Amino acid sequence: MCLSNNQDPAVAQFAQFQLDLGSGKNLPADGNVNMPRDLYLHGATILPLIQHIYPTIQSNPHPAPAYFINCMLLAPRNEDVHVINHKIIDMFHASPTETRVYQSADSAIIQDSESDQIPVEFLNAINISGLPVSKITLKVGCPVMLLQNLSTKEGLCNGTCAIVAIMKRWVIGVHVIHGGVLDTQMTWISHLSLEPSEDTEFHFTLRWHQFPIALAFAMTVNKSQGQTVDHVGIDLRVPSFSHGQLYVGCSRTTTRQGLLLLPPNMLGTTNVVWPEALLIPHN
Questions:
Q1: 207-230, pLDDT tens digit by residue?
Q2: Domain that holds residue 261
Q3: Looking at the 3D structure of the chain, how many domains does it have?
């Protein structure tokens, strides 16, 4: 948590609000917490939240790269993040020459050999956390996030964000964002062969041939840890489900005015706190 002007009483109050979320102070047995109403955005769809966090996302020409450094959209689940990113990339303006769709070449590995027993359509439909989707649309100027550690020495780690600048068939050129600053030097990311790091529910090993990136207009709350920006919107239509998730999301912003929540209704949202995971006494 990094708040601006922490000598201001209003800022101190917001800091205490965030700390209470993290500690689960006064949390009812059902885990439902009533958030301040001025943080709520009314709407049944994600569109109002997109328009609030990215008000000029549909502008022509598209927003400059710095536009995405101080804004983020969050959601608890990967599947919701994929939907939001897909919607925003369709809204994001780019000419046909600045747009490219990359379809992965997926294969099933059975007993150390590629097998043709599994339909390609089935393989393409599988989404595994931490690995890229089978089909990704990129446009020059859009934000992306690395999903693999490519070079820790150069700061190209899982979770690093960047802005797409050049797209070729087997490589893409990006400007990496380090510490809230856009690197002017071009970084090249190659098409890779990727496999899940953990066992899956399938009797085969899925191998992707794809860029190790994801669109980053929106990201999961967990992926946002360690980042601080001016404007944060959190899609809570599906509420948080793991310890500290709501606190992490709400503490990504530097000011109360920079936080906006989209709940399923005006009755509050779920705050999951496990007292045994905290290092302080739980009241």
A1: 778 899 999 999 999 999 888 899
A2: 29-92+217-283
A3: 2
